[in-house]
Amino acid sequence: MIQSQTAAVGGIAPALRGGAMSIRSLVLGTLLAACGGSQAEQPAAQTAKAAASDSGQACGEYARKLCMELGPRSDGCRSVLGVVAFMPPRACSAGLEEFASTQSRIADLRKACVAVAERVCAELGAESESCKAIRGDLPDIPPGHCAALLRDQDQLVAVLRQRESLTTPLADAHWNALTAGKPPGFGSADARVVVVQFSDFQCPFCAETAQTVRKLKEDYGARIRFVFRQFPLSFHPDARAAAQASLAAHDQGKFWEYHDLLFAHQDALGRESLIEHARKAGLDVVAFRSALDGSSTAERVEEDLKLGQAVEVQGTPTLFIDKQRIADPMDYEALSAVIDKLLSQTP
Question: Is the pTM of this model over 0.85?
Answer without folding.
Answer: no
